[in-house]
Amino acid sequence: xxxxxxxxxxxxxxxxxxxxxxxxxxxxxxxxxxxxxxxxxxxxxxxxxxxxxxxxxxxxxxxxxxxxxxxxxxxxxxxxxxxxxxxxxxxxxxxxxxxxxxxxxxxxxxxxxxxxxxxxxxxxxxxxxxxxxxxxxxxxxxxxxxxxxxxxxxxxxxxxxxx
Length: 163
Known about the structure:
The chain has 163 residues and is mostly helical. Helices cover 82% and strands 0% of the residues. The protein has one domain (3-162). The chain has helices spanning 3-22, 31-49, 58-86, 90-118, 125-145, 148-162. Helix 1 (3-22) runs antiparallel to helix 2, helix 3 runs antiparallel to helix 4 and helix 4 packs antiparallel against helix 5.
């Protein structure tokens, strides 16, 4: 059922609400309540959509549930960017990306690819390999990008080599 993606998005919004509540000294006070409202809107979405099972096909139900999941994933990435760019808390941003952002994105990609496979649209082998390679590159690049001391040391080494 494509509504699994809406349920997953609701869970991610509730996760965000709890985690931002724990980090309330680093985030605006209204953020956990906004995420709770978004989860409540997702429940309303499921309640209303059960009446439209016949009207909408699986294709349309997949896309609006998938869009809700993408919105929840975008909010996880936005919190990560907020810690890194706005608050300049590089360590917290690295921990957030390693503990929340990276695993949730990989898990979502896994479920979407499995859903597409069981719907008769299998991922070609080269796309699966590209997905694994891009996940590894994303994980290492996030770690390097959010480590300013690593970047500074790298640029110093290159400068010394040139001289």
